[in-house]
Design a protein that fits this description.
It holds the Pfam family Beta-lactamase. By secondary structure, the chain is of the alpha+beta class. It is built from eleven helices and 13 strands.
Length: 374
């Protein structure tokens, strides 16, 4: 057994999956946590934090989870909507007047939540370090034109979504989204998740391990995908820099582990509450399951079925009809099933190739889903 931590007997198969992935080398280091009907039934970790396998992955190891960070951003937006401070169907410019420039007056908050706002990349070419400059990023987005008619198709807002939603949060609350999340969610729950990592936590970070380079011609990309990903020249090793870890990049630079991700996102599977605390009403939870767009996403190069922020069942993630999910570049993933009251989180350091590759996470989620039916 290569993993530490515990599982209930019912969910022992989840440990078997992670053990197998560590044994085969598919994983270098990873953690898995599962909540079922209000109880933690899996909390395991194993492997190493480095490619040379010299430093073990510990119970409190954290890593950059890439776009799994978006689930925290969605949660904050939903909390403000639940409190009546944010109308998800209102124009973004209601809260951020400068955003109305260049034909964006009609873009609604829900369009940003569902990646249909037409702003999948930056209108100016940015250097990676500029992602730490909030005013620079938001001013570029406020000034540019949408790249397609908003609301008509999905186009993954890989990095821009966090600035768009984060600026709306800032205009409403006066706080950065990282500050709001820490005060309103992470601290009340004791969740070890950070949007903007304090330097005091650096010793616990497992740096992400970049995926292998693709064979020539192995990956094809649409013009929109190229335009999106080249609008800021960043790569899989960008999180190795302290400036990245310390910044607030709410679509991509959250640091945590499976335990903290599962704890926070169990709010969704438990219909608005977890650990005896209520964060959302059941009415707002149901809004997550309302389809906002269902169609081909040329940025990701696959079918996309988006609810209010979270992804819904689609060919690449065949989850239940009342389940939602999201994942991160390289393979991290969290799945919430409302009917089963099941939350499954898988966070790792070794990245798979491709912006939406998550075969290892799917294997973990499937094992947990099977166990939940027993």
């Amino acid at each position: 057994m290569l993993t530490e931590g515990f599982t209930t007997e019912q969910f022992a198969g989840v440990r078997e999956v992670l053990d197998a992935q560590l044994t085969s080398g598919a994983d270098v280091g990873a953690s898995v946590c599962v909540h079922h009907r209000g109880e933690v039934v899996v909390d395991i970790w194993g492997g190493h934090t480095d490619t040379d396998r010299t430093k073990p992955w510990e119970a409190d190891t954290i890593t950059n989870v890439w776009s799994t960070t978006k689930t925290m951003t969605f949660l904050v937006a939903l909390m403000l909507a639940d409190r009546g401070e944010l109308d998800l169907q209102a124009p973004v410019a209601t809260y951020w007047p400068e955003f109305a420039a260049n034909g964006k007056a009609g873009i609604e908050v829900r369009h940003v939540m569902s990646h249909t706002a037409g702003l999948s990349g930056f209108g100016e070419r940015l250097q990676p370090e500029e992602l730490a400059d909030w005013e620079r990023c938001t001013s570029v987005l406020a000034a540019q034109e949408p790249w397609w008619e908003p609301g008509t198709m999905p186009g993954y807002h890989a990095v821009t979504q966090g600035y768009l939603l984060g600026e709306v949060v800032r205009r409403i609350t006066g706080d950065t989204i990282g500050t709001f999340f820490r005060r309103e969610v992470a601290e009340p729950l004791g969740a070890d998740f950070h949007i903007g990592l304090p330097e005091s936590e650096e010793s616990r970070v497992a740096l992400v391990i970049p995926p292998p380079k693709p064979e020539p011609g192995a990956i094809t990309a649409s013009e929109l995908a190229i335009r999106t990903f080249l609008s800021v020249r960043m790569g899989a090793k960008t999180p190795h820099h302290r400036w990245w870890r310390g910044a607030e990049i709410p679509a991509a630079n959250g640091h945590g582990n499976a335990r903290s991700v599962a704890l926070v996102q169990s709010i969704i599977a438990n219909r608005g509450e977890t650990s005896g605390q209520r964060f959302l009403s059941s009415t707002t939870i149901e809004r997550i399951l309302d389809t906002q767009i269902n169609g081909f996403d040329p940025v990701l190069g696959r079918e996309s079925h988006m609810g209010m922020g979270y992804g819904l069942s689609n060919p690449s993630m065949p989850i239940g009809p009342r389940a939602c999910y999201w994942g991160g570049f390289g393979g991290s993933v969290v799945v919430m099933d409302l009917d089963a009251q099941l939350t499954v989180a898988y966070m790792m350091n070794k990245m798979e190739l491709g912006p939406s590759s998550n075969a290892r996470g799917i294997a973990v989620a499937m094992a947990a889903a099977v166990a939940a039916t027993r």
